[in-house]
Write a structure and sequence with these properties.
Blueprint: H1 9-55, H2 57-75, H3 79-90, H4 95-111, H5 115-126, H6 133-147, H7 153-160, H8 171-184, H9 188-200, H10 206-224
Helix pairs in contact: 1-2, 1-4, 1-8, 2-3, 3-4, 4-5, 4-6, 5-6, 7-8, 8-9, 9-10
Length: 235
Amino acid sequence: MALTPQTDPAFLREVDEELRRDQLGQVWRRYGKALIALIVVSLALFGGYLWWQANGEQKAGEEGEQLSAALDDLSGGRPAQADAKFKTIIKGDNPSYRAIAQLAQAARKFEAGDAKGAIAAYRAIETDSDVAQPFRDAALIKGVAVGFDTMPPQKAIDRLKPLAQPGAPWYGSAAEMTAIAYLKLNQPQKAAAIFNELAKNTEIPDTLRARAVRISGALEQQSSAPPAPQKEKTE
């Protein structure tokens, strides 16, 4: 049975709010600096390896120590000192460490309520051709997530398209936001197809899959509901 257009603003608002709570609220507000440090340290290991191979042990070690010191400042409640070190790293010649520092600063701006600044920082990483693709993908998904509420739905769909394919990095989050954008465009058929795929995918996080199951079920119920009776026209 074909899906009827989804025009219930309460339903869209509920889905949108749940997406924000899970992807932004719970992640950044609940875990805050500890999660930022975990993400940055993981990226630092990868970036450090690339830089070590290309530029030698000494310089990589120096920049690694500087990054480690910045993270210590961040986790120790010394954001000003951390920012100063991050700015120095960003001015350096190492694109991987530069991306790591920019990711950390973008997350800090978002935590501080500066969504516009965070989006700009993520965009700078995403468009930096010298930065390794995993960093650019991370910046793309996080930048779209931060600006999702104010971004035109079609723009979000277009930007997320490379990552919203099964097997692509960040597939689960990219596909979910794409589906929400289709709901905002009153295209529930496309949204339902994506949520159905997410609901069957065992490789995405359990919380994301469970949410896809709920939303997919809600869309199915709405599509099977009988249409409202038409009022007869009077002459």
